[in-house]
Design a protein that fits this description.
There is one protein chain. By secondary structure, the chain is α+β, with helices and mostly antiparallel strands. The chain has helices at 13-23, 62-81, 113-121, 139-151, 161-179, 182-191, 252-271, 281-284, 286-295, 322-325; strands spanning 2-5, 35-39, 44-48, 84-90, 99-108, 155-158, 192-194, 202-203, 217-220, 229-232, 241-247, 275-278, 301-309, 326-328, 330-333. The strands form 5 sheets. It has a 5-stranded mixed β-sheet with strand order 4-5-3-2-14. The termini are close together.
Length: 336
Amino acid sequence: MNTTITPVGSLTAGEVREVLTAATSAPSLHNTQPWRFHCTPGAIELHADTSRALEAADPEHRELVLACGAALLNLRLAIRASGTVPDVRTLPEPGRPSLLATVRPAARRPATPAEQELAAAIPRRRTNRRPFHHDPVPAVLQASLRQAAETERGWLAVLDPPQRLVLCGLSRRAHQEQLDDPEFVAEWQRWTGRAGDVGEGVPVRSSGPVPEPQDEFVLRDFGAGGARTRVTGKDFEPEPLICVLGSFQDSRHAQLQAGMAMQRVLLTATANGLASSFLSQVVEVADTRRELRALIGGGLWPQIVLRVGYGSPVPATPRRPLEDVVTGELEPNRSS
C-alpha cells in the first residue's frame, strides 16, 4: 500500500514529501537516523527518537541532537528551495523534551541562488571514508567553510600541523578506550558492516580500505562490523584538512545549532567539490574531548571533528522510507 502525504501550510503534498526526503538525508552516527517528523496541517515537527540512541558511544545523546540539527537545516533549505520561507522555532515546548523544533511554511518568496546551491547539494553529500587526493584545500574554500559555520552561530577551527599531531594522539587514546568497552564494541558491531540495503546502519560498500601499519590518523572500521582499527596517513592524504566545529555553549539548544552549523559546512563543502568524513572518537570520550577543547583555545565546546578534502565518488548510505519516520497527516493511497 502506497502512502500519500497531505499538504502542510502553503506546501503542497508533493513538496512536503520532497522536503522530508531532504531532511532525512542528513548524516547521523552509524547512520542510525535518530529523528521523527510529525506533520500537522500547519507545521512539521522535528522530534528526537531516543529509541535509536547509541547509549555506549553517545550516552548524553549529544551526537543524536547534532544529527537532528543537521536534518533541521536540510528541512529549512529544502523549504526555501521550494520558494517558501520557513518559520522555525527551536525547543518550543519545555514540557515536550523530544520536540526539538517546529517548522511552519510561511510566505512564498523565491530562494536565493546561494540557497538553491546548498539545497541542490543535499542529495549529493556523502560521508567519504576513503583516501582523499593529496591536493590541499585552498584558503578561500577554508574561509567559506568557516563562514558557513558562523552563519549558524557555530565556529570552525582549522587545525595547524602541531595541533593535528596532538589530535592524532587524542584520537588513538579515545579509540583504544572505546575498543576496551565491550558494550561499545557490541553496539558498533550491531550498526556497521551491513550487507545489502536494509535502510539503516553503515553498509560494507560505504567503508574505507583496510588500514596498513604506517598509517597515522585513527578512523573507525565500518567494513567488517568488528572492532578493528582503521587509520589514515601515508596511504591517505599526507596532510588532511582537519576542522573542529564548536559551539559557544554545550546546552541542548547549542548542540542543535551546532548540528545545523555542521550540516551547512558539509553542504558548502559538497557544493564546492569537497568530500568529508568524521573523526568522532575524540569527542565521544570525556577526557579527550576536554583536552581537545583546551587545544582549540578553551572557549569553545568541540562538537564534531571533520576531515575535508578532494575525494573520489562514493555511494550513498541507505535511508529508511518516510513512512517509518513520519507520523500525522498521512493517508493511504488505495488507488495505487
